[in-house]
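Example 3.2
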Amino acid sequence: VQLQASGGGLVQAGGSLRLSCAASGSIFSINAMGWYRQAPGKQRELVAAIISGGSTNYADSVKGRFTVSRDNAKNTAYLQMNSLKPEDTAVYYCNAVVPGPIGNYVYWGQGTQVTVSS
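Structure, written as tokens:
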């Protein structure tokens, strides 16, 4: 399974970006897809996640500004980011939780840089 994240870039504070994460390979189903971010000198943190039934989970810092969605037919997850703040600057990673014969496997994308200028 390969994950390809895209959509990052440079944006001014208050602006918007939409990230995409496309999963490919031998995939029968995906239990959940998530977005994480890692700023310089900080640990990677969960931003948002969406499970197969459509339930979502957000970090408190992005609630009301970010929206995670998923196109199951395309095995693609999206992260719509509005009202961006300089503190949202980070490398954003997507992951996918895929069921396997002995448990779940977690795959990661390569990361996409998001820079928010003040």
